[in-house]
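ligand=magnesium ion
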Amino acid sequence: QAQRDGGNTLRFFESEMDARASRRMDVLSRLRGAIGRGELFLHYQPKVCTADGQVIGVEALVRWHNGDIGMIPPSDFIPLAEESGLIDEIGEWVLRRACEQGMRWQAEGLSELSIAVNLSTRQFRQERLLALVRSALEDSGLPPQRLELEITEGMLMQDPEKAAVVLRRLHELGVRISIDDFGTGYSSLSYLQRFPVHTLKVDQSFVREISNSPGAAAIVTAVISLAHSLDLCVVAEGVETEAQRRFLGDLACDYCQGYYFSRPVAAGEISALNGAEPATLPRA
Ligand code: C2E
Ligand code: MG
Ligand code: MG
Ligand code: MG
């Protein structure tokens, strides 16, 4: 009896696995043609000054809508793209489109806006990253100081020596480097003074718990103070409430990003900010 149940459980487990694997294959094969079919697009989430709510930059976030399966969140397809190598093509597409959009906003008068682009692990490791960034800047005309590349702690720690070289070259190009999801990775803090990093982005898991967890509040406080004593900028991610904004304002956190100010939106909604008061930001 026990053995038969065990067998059934195993068969059930295997069919679950099959279902999941075939769903992945299905998503992956659709993803292969997604760029060609024009299914990818970018949304942009404003990054605002904590003190006055002024929009100083945006983060480009890739979106994928497939006619058959609908919207697929990046948390579902970026890992697949990364494993399959498709991220090379997607990452290049994102970088080029974001730089071009930055120039379009410049033409509309939003000439100070910084444009942040997320890099994946695989992109960061590639030899051609530098050439790609240089080419995206040259082809679009975007001033390098307006491009910000977001990387995670894990990317730096895999091969710190090599990462240092890559970061130095990017820095020489004039682009800025942000550490995304800061506080969630396993990393040594010593790299912060060795690498040309410009900004720390406090991970949203800590920001979310600011009012409920003294531990999370302590971590946010410590990261802001660490950033400032190293002369780095600091951005709080995932700010959703007035209480969080006030806490961050009291700590003089430079910038905030989150649904409290705006969800990621289409490029046109960012254009509409031109000349607008901070208060007219589209709220979540
Ligand atoms: P991330 O770079 O840390 O981006 C922030 C994520 O938090 C975004 O999710 C954003 O929509 C979400 N978010 C912003 N404010 C709030 C808030 O107040 N509350 C909550 N609950 N969430 C908020 P999204 O767009 O789903 O992206 C998820 C992750 O996928 C990104 O995390 C990034 O790691 C990756 N990703 C997105 N676009 C790209 C891309 O173009 N290239 C690469 N390599 N990765 C990307
Ligand atoms: Mg990011
Ligand atoms: Mg993040
Ligand atoms: Mg992330």
